[in-house]
Queue: 3 jobs
Job 1
Amino acid sequence: MTRPPTAAQRRVIEAADPVTGRLRGTDAQLAALVKRGLAFRHPRPPHDHFLTPAGHRIREAPPEEAVPDAPAPAAGSGVFAARVGGEESGDTGPARAREVHSAWQGLLELRRMTNPGGAMDRPCGWERTHLVPAAALALEAAGHRPATGDLGDGYRVRATPQPEAVAVHQPDLAALRSCAATLENAGWQVSEHARPRARERYLLASPRRG
């Protein structure tokens, strides 16, 4: 947990467009928010600034609730951690649900801002370079439960030797196929496979292109 935003920064955050997260402020204020991972500067003219998912969490949280001051997926820092499965423990309460929802909405907005034609039905550039957390966020945002520890039930998202594919493991076959449907709805191409000489089935998922 790091310092909360200053009063002036919080005013800029709270005045953001409620739908797009577009920000208005001085160059210094906007630069400070970008530095803290609470905003990002759009790469295309007119180079407007928008809230990251972490910035949205600041805006949505009650004033008395402490909010992690951390970049979210749009900033590419990996500080916001979608659960990939295998973590020893983690909060599953309302605060976590709020954080995941905000991160997913921020990622959809990033798709709209960066995909050709504003397409939100397929992954964006950030997702293609952060395959594991992107797939895990799609699953967690849809309500799937990650595995806990080494032996826990639930999904696990792992990198593969293939440059644009992740593997999704889930011991329950029905839950595995539910994960497949979620990823397909989120714009991923998914195929089901079986391990050689093993009974376990798993998914390979790749971001869809067009």
Job 2
Amino acid sequence: MNAVIVTGASRGLGAAIAEQFMDRGFAVITVARRENEPLKQKAQKLKLSYAHLTCDLSQFDGQQDLTRQLKPTLDKMGDLEALYVVNNAGVVEPVERVGKMSPLEMKRLIDINVLAPMVLTNHLVQLFPTTPLMIVNVTSGAAQHARHGWSAYSSSKAALNVFTETAALESKATGAPHTFIAYNPGIMDTDMQGVIRSSDSQAFQDVERFQEFKEKGMLRSPERVARALVSLVLDNRDIKNGQIYDVNDLLKGNA
């Protein structure tokens, strides 16, 4: 059995990724505070193994609860041949200047964007030392450069990139059958983009530019971005361990 775990799968990119894996016949475990009912119904229609784990990844107890539930859930699905994991859950708030941010919002962002994928990845590497793992950490182009109002978000994605690269380096050294990559999905038509567009211009100087992306139809659909990712990890025989992949490169010539 091939299985995938997708965090933040209640909507947007996470839901689209889970659906794409279903179309490839994978057993699917979704992780979010709320279950996506259409995904559940699709799994039933396709007669695929499916489970939803309700977790609040902004809480350490929720992260620990997730790790406790995974092995029993996977065991019920059958003998595992390979496990794919997409650490997709993420938040952009606080969108604010340094000196104006809420410490509680900063902590929540780091817990979801950085600590949750680190905890989950660490647990799975311990749990499956000889099972092929493909860990995909959803990152952002914001990790590569400073952007006004995004100090917390950009820093969290930069941290996730280094974690990805380091985990890959270590797996190569030990010879473990584990692959770690990061995936930049670019700009999509999701709820997160709605949050960005509603930001105050003093907190986020580029707000008008992001509003223009929506007005001019420049946002890709989550479904298209998800297809590019799933094709990358399932159809590409030359995946580079530790690589940060960009959807724009994958869709080049097919924008």
Job 3
Amino acid sequence: MTRPPSAAQRRVIDAADPVTGRLRGTEAQLAALVKRGLAFRHPRPPHDHFLTPAGHRTRESPAQEPTVPAAAAAAGGGGFAARVGGEEEEEEALDAAGTAGPARVREVHSAWQGLLELRRMTNPDGAMDRPCGWERTHLVRAAALALEAAGHRPEGTDGDGYRVRATPQPEAVAVYGPAGEALGAYAATLEAAGWQAGEYTEARTRARCLLASPRRA
């Protein structure tokens, strides 16, 4: 089965002249379309590129959108698990310098992009700057993914980094860090990801934490 065009290639195809099929794009994009048989390079100067019949058919067919299950799997399923902090096995995802290894960085980036796509597909207005229903039913994992995707480190055996935990409050998680400064950075990250967060002192332990919940508007 022929692999569908990439998102960038699809944008070039969709932007083709509706009458002549003339294309505009980078040399690499145009060459890739030629290689796939979706475009040809005119032999005469200025050697513009045009859609082939297969390219025209591709433009006329609806773009293949990822399904909701696929986006959800990228965000939090399919074997991927957001690092919530405080678990010894999380050390396996770190390199010798104590930071996330390349494979983990790629996994987290893919999961975050999947979550943004899930927001676009499931929020009534298509908003990507506001948490979606999946996040509201997976609060701990969603908040942890937002933190890890921004480059924050989950707590490991050294006691450094963030921890995300459930709370008795509806639609709220607690985020702990090694220092007050870290809480401010975590709050800024979560707010940029569509959450609302405020610092809180626990009555029993006097520990400082963030209480964070998904923003609704």
